[in-house]
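Workshop exercise sheet. Pairs work together: one partner reads the sequence aloud, the other fills in the structure field after running the prediction. Swap roles for the next sheet.
Pair: D.N. / O.F.
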Amino acid sequence: MIDEIVREGACRMLAEALQAEVDAYIAPKTLMSYLGMLHPRA
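Structure field:
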């Protein structure tokens, strides 16, 4: 029972950490593409 709770908690923490990494990687690229659309280069 306790092993199951610990395993679920560890799995959830890993999933949240991975999601944070993905968000941190994608956010600047999304912002740059958005800004590029606002100010296209000539």
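Discussion prompt: DSSP finds one helix and no strands in the chain. What would you look at next?
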